[in-house]
Design a protein that fits this description.
This protein has two helices and no strands. By secondary structure, the chain is mainly alpha-helical. It is elongated and about 60 Å long.
Amino acid sequence: MNDDTGEAEAEALILARLALAQQDHADLDVAIQAIAAAPVPNMMVISRLKRKKLLLKDEIERLKDQLTPDIIA
């Protein structure tokens, strides 16, 4: 297998995971807003969802870093 082909496949996998993580992050926003709008919002659930959202944000940043080439100055 060509090395460029392997790199392209790896990049495609990272892009797919990035898109999924970004969608999950947006979905959590909607879920948090819906729960917060309830007459008696469940703060425990909101707290857990916010924690999960922060973990996804970290993953999104790691994936973006993997896509950025290392530049040696």
